[in-house]
Amino acid sequence: MNSIEQVFHYQNRQVRAIQFADTLWFVAKxxxxxLGIRTNSVRFILDEDEVRDFNPNDNxxxxxxxxxxxxxxxxxxxxxx
Length: 81
Hints:
By secondary structure, the protein is mainly β. It has one domain (2-78). 15% of the residues lie in helices and 40% in strands. The protein is built from two helices and six strands; from the N terminus they run βββααβββ. A six-stranded mixed sheet has the order 4-6-3-2-1-5. It is globular.
């Protein structure tokens, strides 16, 4: 099972990281809060291979703070900071 690998802290904010397929992915919401940018701008800033959606309903991925269930949106993650 893939899961949160580490939680980094920057200026009293946490940045969660997911180890998936030999790559460390950072939860985009956390990164954007630290950088002071909107999450929906990430896809325009980064290359296509640096952005990925994780589905909390996927049993192979355990993302801290993401609750599975109906109506739950995918969690956006980035491989670059």
